[in-house]
Amino acid sequence: MSDPTRGQRASSFGRRAAEYAQHRPDYPREAIEWGLSGASGTPHRVLDLGAGTGKLTLGLAALGLDVTAVEPDPEMRAELERVVPSVPALAGQAERIPLPGDSVDAVFVGQAFHWFDAPVALTEIGRVLRPGGVCVPMWNYEDESVPWVAEFTALARDGARRPASVEDLREVTHPEFEPFEIARFRHGQRRTADSLLETMATYSKVIVAAPEESAALLGRLRQFLAENPATATGEFDLPLITTALRTRRR
């Protein structure tokens, strides 16, 4: 499969906004609570940055937090407004956040921090975050300790290099922030072969590929799922690991 630019991939998700909202997994409550527990005081005002269609926004709002979402893509933002109408959804990006200084207690980032210009974004996050507040990037990944999942994700990568690892991003430093802490949480999503393929079709690499390339890849994945005993019939649980980073503003 051809290797599109990072910018093309980062801006591709709006083309599949409705499918993203329907098929991407949510985030476990314990991961969100772990992130919040790193703040000094009791966090209440929270920014969901790069909020997409609101997968993480929903979990933050469910805790009774005062949530604001910021998302650059208008199609993703429209889905967010549909899914979480109670949360203000603003146009903006990590490097230029449309909020005043020291206005939030926590900044959460679901499945998006690796797209940011990290040094610039952390400066801007530091501007809107009060001293003692926390920045909490998190990601859902397939649990590759499960053999069939490891085979499936290797096939899905189709020879492409692995994305930047959370361990690499953990090493990012900024003078306004303490070193990142890391925690992992077991998670899962009820899937069928069809819904898992719909999920894969929301990955940026698949979205931006030539139609014949993406169709061929999804065909190979469909064959794998049809032949794998764990996924061949009916519903199954897709094992996931939610990995969260946490850093406190000095």
Automatic annotation (TrEMBL):
Chain ranges passing through the membrane: none
* Organism taxonomic ancestry: Bacteria, Bacillati, Actinomycetota, Actinomycetes, Pseudonocardiales
- What CDD domains does the record tag this protein with? AdoMet_MTases
Q: Where is the Methyltransferase type domain?
A: 47-136
Signal sequence residues: none
The family line of this record is: Belongs to the methyltransferase superfamily.
Protein's UniProt name? Type 11 methyltransferase
Region of interest (Disordered), residue spans: 1-24
Q: What keywords are assigned to this protein?
A: Methyltransferase, Transferase
- Originating species: Amycolatopsis bullii
Q: Which GO terms describe its molecular function?
A: methyltransferase activity
Q: Which GO terms describe its biological process?
A: methylation
